[in-house]
Amino acid sequence: MPDEFPPQVAKLHTALQRLAGVHGTKSGIECVDGVTAEQLSLACFAQLPHGAMRRTGGAISNEVQVQVEFQIEPSAAGWRSLKFLAWWVRDAARGSLPVQLRPFALPPTAVSNVQLGQTLRFHLDYFFTHPDRAIEPILEALSKLADDLDQTIDIYQSSLLERGGPSLLTE
Questions:
Q1: E strands along 32-171, which residues?
Q2: What are phi and psi of 68, to 5 degrees?
Q3: Mean pLDDT of 53-69
Q4: CA-to-CA distance for 12 and 67, rounded, in angstroms?
Q5: Any idea what the Cα angle at residue 121 is, between residues 108 and 116, rounded to 5°?
Q6: CA 8, CA 21: separation in Å to the nearest integer?
Q7: Kind plus residue range of the DSSP H or E element containing 31
Q8: What pLDDT, in 10s, does the model give residues 96-144?
Q9: pTM across the whole model
Q10: Where is 91: in which H helix or E strand?
């Protein structure tokens, strides 16, 4: 995943990191066209959303996947933010966006190193199908997604504070 992002992708990172306990965002845009269900067991495809792709027998023709990875601080604020994001993604998917949130972790051990408890990440997967594979529509959609997350955070932050609830934002 690249260290520098187009402004539209950086905007989504910024929106995510507004939430308390969210950190370590990374992302990538990958053409998954041609990836078959059989290939999903290969290590080089470990980061892909296997469940979603197996349901369709592999990637859909002309499919591009945007994946935003982030970590959650193991604190009350971090878990609250994860619950908020889980609801927000579910609501977006119910509204017809091809988006999902899923956990990702590495094996409990690797050679002589214990990884259990050290590698948990979350992936926000957003799927696009574009016959010409142009990047501009994808970046525009990511910008809209970031705007929606920012607006949703603002709405619920105000609502929570009015009711004496905990903040969604980093202190």
A1: 63-72, 99-104, 109-110, 113-114, 121-129
A2: -110, 120
A3: 89
A4: 11
A5: 20
A6: 22
A7: strand 22-31
A8: 899 999 999 888 888 888 888 888 999 999 998 878 878 898 999 999 9
A9: 0.86
A10: helix 76-94
